[in-house]
Prior knowledge:
Oligomer: heterodimer
Largest sheet of chain A: 8 strands, mixed
Low-confidence stretches of chain B: 1-8, 338-346
Helix content of chain A: 25-40%
Strand order of the largest sheet of chain B: 6-7-8-3-9-10-12-11
Strand content of chain B: 15-25%
Number of strands of chain B: 12
Amino acid sequence: MNHLLEVKNLHTYFQTREGLVCAVDGVSFHLDGGELLGLVGESGCGKSISALSIMRLVSPPGKIVAGEVLFDGRDLLRLSNREMRDVRGNDVAMIFQDPMTSLNPVFTVGEQIAEALRLHHQLNRKQAAAAAVEAMTEVTIPDAELRAKDYPHQLSGGMRQRVMIAMALACDPKVLIADEPTTALDVTIQAQILELLNNLRRTRELAVLLITHDLGVVAEVADRVAVMYTGQIVEASPVDELFARPKHPYTEGLLRSVPKLRRTATTKEARLQTIDGAVPRLTALPPGCHFEPRCPYRMPRCREQEIPLYPVAAEVAARCVLFDPATVGDAEMINHRGHRESHIQ
Amino acid sequence: MVNNNENDNRELVRVRELYKHFPVEGTDDVWRAVDGVSFDIKPGETLGLVGESGCGKSTAGRCILRLIEPTRGDVEFAGRDVTAMGKRELRELRREMQIVFQDPNASLNPRMKIGDIIAEPLVIHNIGNKAERRERVAWLLGKVGLDADYMKRYSHEFSGGQLQRIGVARALALNPKLIVADEPVSALDVSVQAQVVNLLQDLQQEFGLTYLFISHGLAVVEHISTRVAVMYLGRIVEIADAKDLYLNPLHPYTVALLSAIPIPDPKQKRDRIILKGDVPTARNPPSGCRFRTRCPMAIEACAHTDPELREIAGGHSVACIRVEGYDSAPRTESLHRHETSLPVKT
Lengths: 345, 346
């Protein structure tokens, strides 16, 4: 089956003074219209660089060294710069964490949205201005006609992010990449923006790649989730499955270290569970499984080989030897699984 | 001595009618960052102060330490009037009250060795000689879960979580009674956040510390706090025991705030209350109840009545005329000024 967007074995490397950094190290995922994929992980895991690689917006010393980004069957990585410029905005659009840096401070937001519309739809000035107001209404900006005359600094963070979304959607893209779109916003405003994104993808059949560090956000809106660690996807799963039965020990650790609200948690723990240690530097990754030094289930063979992403079930995969189909029946594994079950209790 | 004992059983911090208004440049307007806030912090407890950005929670925390001069109001620390203190007294007092900041990168001098950063409060207060201080630093590093050898390194060599531990070690250096923790884990990744929260709890137990924990992360606040105060536009709108507040929120803002938190469990489908609009500015807050412009429960009367905090049930106070029992509830105890309190400073 052909997906709307399919990323295959993407590698983006940075040559730094400290050595080669494999920021994105063999990432693959796919996305279809109306679907929302959450790409989660902690800072430095490569989630944003993955997104920028899809848009071909990685700046030097970063370089996409291998992989394919198939959009409607075309490999975006093979397009000329001119062809790629047409893809950006028209087919794939992106919004960022801080809308203030992406908006021009000396033009009104209405003008900026109208400009995007004019470029792509060949509208005249008047038509574009009217379409901009319409676009602002779609992203639930109240009194859009008045707000269109505001400059970015006159708007609140939530309103600015709405303006960014309106601009991104101006040319009817099929894919929207949202990089931490609510991280800078207050929780009540975050709820508004998430609801908006969720509605838009339904009404517009929009494919959304949502990049976030917040597992709560993912649980709220994502259909499927990919968890990243040190440049690799360590687990991919439908959202219900991921939260109910995390496969990779890192996912499990992440889920447990989030403090739960009492009203929603079954038990109240006196202490938060943690993951030991810290994320390793990308220039000094441990051999074999990158999570091994912090993993409560580690065993000698974790260090012996690069661990592939093992398929576990339909749409479920985990980069952990516990799910190696060749050894799932081994005594050692059973032992570890037993240990794990008791751990999870 | 008798007095001292009395103080021990009482609040460590008493804040009464605290105001901080910042002038707005080029106008006669003021920014009402903190606009009449009263609360107590009991010894050994953690008071969580939550609210969205701009609600005044950080300003309130800093006014207690007098890192920012309050416009008016009283702050008492262990029975002493902090707002009336002179420079020298204040410096002595800071031995007992310390602060941990949100961004450890910005609050640790990149040109100083970690050991010197942690020892600086000791140097300022003339405590110990060089060797003693080094010993103290090594001990402190151990207490926050870091290697004593790290004292010779510079801050750029550490991760965010480690830097925050260093910030905590510096705050602990003088053996304070109170630590104001201003968004101490907000800049950290989830897995590291949990480590630092646990550390803060361990240290509290070991040293009997009292915390004012300021954060917009409601789940973290619930986890660490004994009591929680919710702020909106410079005012406390609700204060209660943590359990009470989270299980039985009364103020419509608290209810909406709690319902807005994304829950890391897709199975939990909730009736989310999505608040309309943005927080109004503290320069020109709405008349009457400040929340009424976004409140789903607002009625005509909300525009005319500026609701005070009233105690609806034991230790659970709320400022909202729409809450059942509010009309007949008594004014919250902590709003009353201390009999011996000094005249209002302006």
